[in-house]
Amino acid sequence: MERPELPLPQLHAFAVLAEELHFGRAATRLGIAQPPLSQQIRRLEEKVGHALFSREPGRVALTPAGRELLPAARRALGDLADGLAAARAVGSGRAGCLRIGFAASLALTVLPGLLRAFRQRFPEVRLNIHEMTTAPQIAALHDKTIDIGLLREPPTDEPGLGFETVLSEPFVAVLPSAHPLAAGRTVETAQLADSPFVLLPREVGPGLYDRITGLCTAAGFTPRVAQHAVEWQTVCALVETGLGVSLAPASIRRIRLRGVAFRGLSPATARTRVAVAWRRDDPNPLVGQLLTALGEDDRQ
User: Fold this and answer.
1) Which of 28, 58, 86, 278 is least surrounded, with the fewest CB atoms within 10 Å of its CB?
2) Which of 125, 127, 120, 124 is nearest to 99 (CA)?
3) CB 26 within 8 A of CB 13
4) Which of 89, 122, 105, 136 is nearest to 291 (CA)?
């Protein structure tokens, strides 16, 4: 197919003249003198190879060739205008696509408020949400398959990535309802020393895993892990069956299971961090917009 080479000023002049059917009025709309308008139309006709307008004293009309070209000219000019508007919106951070990874437990805390605030401020932005544990989020940020990560216990030093704490919450003990310690309001970590544990695998969230086992070590024992589960919903379900106990972020209490009891840890000084993560060299303006929305949500 032959590639058309039609300068936009000529195409624009043609479309305006086709609407006005009067060289003087069309020139006024275009902000040019009438002779340059006539020259643009003549050059366009030379490229087409046929007259686009019939010119008679006191009357200008589209020829059959002109009538055939007009819809395509309008589409081309309209598509270009739409494309320019879309490019400007994306470039300014008002539109585009933002890919977000999040730890499943954050759907119980920071994620709903963040997405609500962001969508209210930037309704034209498409959000692609991916449920991922911490380690896969770090890898996805490096691979540029997500733009933002919301994760627990971020690494202390990860080249090329930025982290900002957005939430700190206490830990709770997750117990079968029939467990003797479920009768009290709080549990001391040391009291769990003889119980088997259900934990997330370390490879999916090394920071959180080490934080939990570190609490046990500080209480004088090494947890005996009876079962691993990738999601907190599954951890709680396995605890309900009596396979073991667990330590979890306090937001996990929103998972309602009849056979599971959540009890505060005593003393309540141990906390887990939730952080937002991003690539420091990411040129996508939407990343900065989301960080701003997150800060605004924290202040509400």
Assistant:
1) 58
2) 127
3) yes
4) 122
The residues with which 197 forms a beta bridge, in sequence order, are 225, 245
DSSP secondary structure letter of residue 4: P
Written as six digits, the tokens of 265 are: 């840890």
> What are the tokens at 266?
């005593």
**Short-list 188, 237, 194, CA closest to 215:** 188
Q: Give the closest residue to 18 by CA, choosing from 46, 60, 76, 50.
A: 60
- φ/ψ of 272, rounded to 5, equals -115, 145
Tokens encoding 166: 């957005």
Please measure the distance between the N-terminal and C-terminal CA atoms of the chain and give it in whole angstroms.
58
CA distance 13 to 27: 8
Helix (H) or strand (E) holding 10: helix 8-20
Which residue is associated with the tokens 């996990």? 252
The predicted structure's pLDDT at residue 300 = 47
Strands (E), 153-244: 161-176, 186-188, 196-199, 224-228
Beta strand pairing call for 161-176 and 260-266: antiparallel
CB 247 within 8 A of CB 265: yes
The C-alpha atoms of residue 186 and residue 250 are separated, in whole angstroms, by: 13
Helix (H) or strand (E) holding 22: none
Of the candidates 87, 88, 91, which has an alpha carbon nearest to the alpha carbon of residue 289? 91
pLDDT tens per residue, range 245-291 = 999 999 899 888 889 999 999 877 889 999 999 999 988 888 887 77
Query: Does the predicted model carry a pTM greater than 0.70?
Result: no
